[in-house]
Design goal:
The chain is built from 4 helices and 2 strands. It is mainly alpha-helical and 163 residues long. A hairpin with a 5-residue loop joins β1 and β2. α1 runs antiparallel to α2 and α1 packs parallel to α4.
Length: 163
């Protein structure tokens, strides 16, 4: 395997490892949300930020190596798929396997992010409804009296203006 392709394999393996770490962190995030553990959730989010930064660095390095390999093969600007067509069979099989693994992990990450987002959104809607309920019970409503002037009256809640 030539130097460029072996570097690409190394980078793609590192990218896969960082994606697996992201999957683990998303599982941790979900468990924190379900357990209502804000500190644990915050720690997972902070670690996710670090992993994303590492993933971006790896992506940049992969793009550079792929561009260099594509130019060396006369492909111009290319992605991994066109590069695979001109690659010898053993390297092609290894790179194709890595490509499939990364695609699977990317799909899994997208699905987990969507699930965690829905879980958080549902929780926030419930919190909002609870707050609105208690606010309606604890506040005094203003309304119009028989003479047409604004009067304060109890909304039938827990607190009464007369007390």
């Amino acid at each position: 395997m030539d130097k460029g392709l072996s570097r690409l394999v190394e980078l793609l393996n590192a990218r896969g490892a960082s994606m697996e770490e992201m999957v683990r962190l998303l599982e941790e995030e979900r468990a924190s949300i379900v357990a209502l553990q804000a500190e644990r959730l915050q720690a997972a989010v902070e670690h996710k930020v670090q992993v994303v930064a590492r993933m971006e660095e790896l992506d940049d390095d992969c793009r550079k190596v792929i561009a260099d390999e594509a130019r060396a093969r006369g492909l111009g600007e290319a992605t991994l798929s066109p590069l695979l067509t001109g690659t010898p069979s053993p390297e092609k099989a290894e790179l194709a396997g890595l490509q499939a693994r990364l695609s699977t992990l990317a799909r899994e990450i997208r699905d987990m992010i969507a699930d965690n987002r829905r879980l958080l959104e549902t929780s926030m809607v419930r919190v909002g409804r609870s707050l609105a309920f208690f606010q309606s019970r604890l506040t005094v409503a203003e309304t119009y009296g028989h003479s047409g002037s604004m009067v304060e009256r109890s909304s039938g809640g827990i607190l009464r203006k007369e007390i």
